[in-house]
Predict the structure.
Amino acid sequence: MEKTILQERYELLSPLLDERMKRLFVAVEAKLLGYGGVSQVAKETGISRHTITMGQKELKEAKKEVSPERIRKKGGGRKPITQQYPVIKRELRKLVESTTRGDPECPLLWTCKSLRKLSDELKSKGYIVSHTVVGELLDDMGYSLQANAKTREGKEHPDRNAQFEYINARIKEWQSNNQPVISVDCKKKENVGNFKNAGREYRPKGQPEEVHTHDFPDKELGKAAPYGVYDLTQNKGWVTVGISHETSTFAVNAIRQWWLSMGKEYYPKATQLLITADSGGSNGYRVKLWKIELQKLANDIGLSVSVCHLPPGTSKWNKIEHRLFSFITQNWRSRPLVSLEVIISLIAATTTKKGLEVTCKLDTNSYETGIKVSEEELKAVNMKKNDFHGE
């Protein structure tokens, strides 16, 4: 169906007219058409009959016409919701404030407080308000979407801060004497194969990297266990990628490889080594095999080995987490770890503006789990507890 002259004229002028001028334009067109003009103009332009008749009234009442700089008469337009319902903000605050959690009568106590549910609840109280207006009200009241913040540590040891101060003092003491200080930990195991990796990177539009739908481990490729050693003084990292179990033997062997490949070069006159580690895992303070393997390490490299374990629940303060592992995660974001070679290359390519360099090697040894350590073997370890929280 071809467009009418009126439709073409309106489409050409519409982008150039403000609200008031559109109203006057359609009013003039309707008047020129005569009887039935309002209906015809409304049909062809899509403007409501009410708007057209309002424009005709403005044409007739020239003396009441608004000034050229105004689009509407004073007081025209929809009234603000706060003017229609002066107490609506107070009612909305009652629904969203955390203090209402203790009120068993609150209807939104056990539900997700979405904008639509808040709108429905306000409507049930007699306030006709859309979910978009609820969002505007919340924004005006200083509310925003907030996720949970992990700040409460739960049960804490009364000397926890003193433990951190003690560890920091030991690190500074070792560094001032040019003795090696390392932070160690095992990064989470990664599935080897064409699996999704968190994060995003630039690619041509509409061409994302295609990976498997499910993250079931590949039985042939298995998993990779990156164990890291971070030199706090040199800002150098060493990562051993294991394909077997994460045991204390595997962890200590990674430290041994670091010393033989890097450590003894940086610290040729070293007599002692300080290790900072988490309280759990393969390097936990309760793991007997960890102590046995450290004794073997001390015998092999000829250094006195000291270990400072971070207090339980504080692994995120371990230096290796935010000085090495975090940058490795950034470097391989959105990159499927399709093979061990790819994993090693991505880890070794990790750098920072502050000069971090990382060396990565593959450990193909098989490490047995469930090894029992007898009391006789443990007593043979030349171990001395620290005076401060030696446990």
User: Anything to note?
Assistant: The longest strand covers residues 223-231. The first helix runs from residue 5 to 13. Residues 5-64 form one domain. The radius of gyration is 36 Å.
